[in-house]
Amino acid sequence: MPELRRDPVEGRWVIISTERGKRPSDFGKEPEEISDKLCPFCSGNEDKTPPEILAYHNPGRERNKPGWWVRVVPNKFPALQIEGQLNRQGDGMYDKMHGLGAHEVIIETPDHTQELSDLEDKRVEDVIWAYRDRIMDLKKDPRFAYILVFKNRGAAAGASLSHPHSQLIATPVVPKRVQEEVKGAKNYFEYKERCVFCDMIKQELNTTTRIVAENDDFLAFEPFASRFPFETWVIPKVHDSDFEDIQKHEAINLSHMLKAILEKIDKVLDQPPFNYILHNSPLRENRLPHYHWHIEIMPRLTKVAGFEWGTGFYINPTPPEEAARFLREAE
Amino acid sequence: MPELRRDPVEGRWVIISTERGKRPSDFGKEPEEISDKLCPFCSGNEDKTPPEILAYHNPGRERNKPGWWVRVVPNKFPALQIEGQLNRQGDGMYDKMHGLGAHEVIIETPDHTQELSDLEDKRVEDVIWAYRDRIMDLKKDPRFAYILVFKNRGAAAGASLSHPHSQLIATPVVPKRVQEEVKGAKNYFEYKERCVFCDMIKQELNTTTRIVAENDDFLAFEPFASRFPFETWVIPKVHDSDFEDIQKHEAINLSHMLKAILEKIDKVLDQPPFNYILHNSPLRENRLPHYHWHIEIMPRLTKVAGFEWGTGFYINPTPPEEAARFLREAE
């Protein structure tokens, strides 16, 4: 079982994979490109993954067979494991617990060569519904405190398989970075009695220079203090702390927006590696007046080096106003 | 002038290089390997850097000429600029200030092909004295709140030149990550009335499984909650919050230890890219009972992906106990 260990100074948790224990010679090899014949996420290879948790599929299709368009499976090499209890305990001055959690893969398409942004709008919308379905289901498990949905595209962004997929990890504690974000937003709310994200949306709509796109429900913009070149946030214009509250018209408009932004990023930056992360409120805190869910998209164009690790400062060589202009003008 | 912008939610500062403004086509190119003929850090090319700030050199040598063994110069493309005042101001709901600071390069050797760990002990010690000399000098400038000394080795760790060098950045605010570390250590002190790092040293010396090496003044170990495979900390065994207080015998023993650890890492991991960071107390807070300076060495073997960005959780596939064993047994 993986072990969760807590840093006694900063309080961050680390997942130590005691079982997969990588030896020195295991590092430095780039993952080999897997052809669609061998790819476990391709249609026809359903037996190469653990049994599916969820699939959107044609009527009459058999489980774990072709005929699906979105498929969710447990990660074959999970960072955290679903069985058991937390078993919090000390180790002298240190703290640890079992590496309990869920780690799932959302396969976005049966077709190896289609990117998320290549899919029809309706299919992108179904990926969004799959995120929601899984969150709603895992939320029932009282052992989980947070669910992170994210996507790594490209080896440099941490993807080990090129077949388009997202991932979901349910954690037994609220991660430190999420706590900080929620706490920062709460501090602002206590001072101003307004949601900091709602204020950002208002100011961005006024300033306009950092806006990339807008539709009825969503705004896409480059944040004022962007850490990375072409960092782009997609945020619902009306206050809501919980992604899983999303309405049908919002899911439609989110799929339009996400597809458009990913197309723009691919066009302007020539299909860069990227991560996107769904920032959502912790599972046991709902309908928060101070928090506002959103998606942060981060192309991986610069290398994070000693200065960033040591300080948490980021050096961004592209002002967000310029990045927004390039993205706005694409297509 | 670069601009410092503050994220309104999390409070982190970002350096926006408004002048160097990178366009989309500037990304994705790997830096070209520069030969020693063109390398600005090589002996004989002193005119390719801004005028030197400090050099340890042979008697009678002329400034900015050969005959040195450690040389400190301003970074030609500084992340922060030395002239001017902070000029804190608002921009609607946002906060910004001038990108004021110092950004220097510590050239560790005149020889392009020698790694820091290849240098004689006495030369490594001089690199350590150069760190200290520059900290002592910059500390006098009341505009600075923190000085970060760090080293990036290898392109994957963010180094743009292969000639062995360290860097130093003085910042006008205490970076968020440093604040968190000092605060975490202070919380522990308030609860236990003991330094958390001193407690770690005691437990590591007792447990022994995570120790890599030890000498009279320093301990090198893999932390219990290592974020990265083969992450190694080098820490003075006697409590001290301020690196710049270092005594002669400590500088000697630190140079022995640093050289030994870097040699071990190179041997076990086949000269991996790495970062190391000097964790030191903020400039205006000295002789802290709760903080303990140290160096964190992080080989860059795994890729930081969406999950790490979204949570601040790290997934480490090599238990620190195993990493320590490999490093201990090397040579």
Present the secondary structure layout:
The structure is a homodimer of 331-residue chains.
Chain A: E1 3-6, E2 13-16, E3 54-57, E4 68-74, E5 89-91, E6 94-98, E7 102-107, H1 121-138, E8 146-153, E9 165-171, H2 176-192, H3 196-207, E10 211-214, E11 218-221, E12 232-236, H4 248-269, E13 274-279, E14 294-299, H5 306-311, E15 314-316, H6 320-329
Antiparallel strand pairs in A: 1-2, 1-6, 3-4, 4-7, 5-6, 7-9, 8-9, 8-13, 10-11, 11-12, 12-14, 13-14
Helix pairs in contact in A: 1-4
Walk me through the structure:
2 copies of one chain form a homodimer. Chain A is of the alpha+beta class. The first copy, chain A, folds into 2 domains: 3-18 and 33-173, 2-Layer Sandwich (HIT family, subunit A), CATH 3.30.428; 177-329, 2-Layer Sandwich (HIT family, subunit A). Helix content of chain A is 26%, strand content 23%. The first copy, chain A, has 6 helices and 15 strands. Chain A has helices at residues 121-138, 176-192, 196-207, 248-269, 306-311, 320-329, and strands at 3-6, 13-16, 54-57, 68-74, 89-91, 94-98, 102-107, 146-153, 165-171, 211-214, 218-221, 232-236, 274-279, 294-299, 314-316. A 10-stranded antiparallel beta sheet of chain A has the order 3-4-7-9-8-13-14-12-11-10, sandwiched between helices. A 4-stranded antiparallel beta sheet of chain A has the order 2-1-6-5, with no helix packed on it. In chain A, helix 1 (121-138) crosses helix 4. The longest helix of chain A is centred in the last third of the chain and has 22 residues, at 248-269. Chain A is globular and about 50 Å long. The N and C termini of chain A lie far apart (49 Å). Chains A and B meet through strand 2, strand 8, strand 9, helix 2 and helix 3 of A and strand 2, strand 8, strand 9, helix 2 and helix 3 of B.
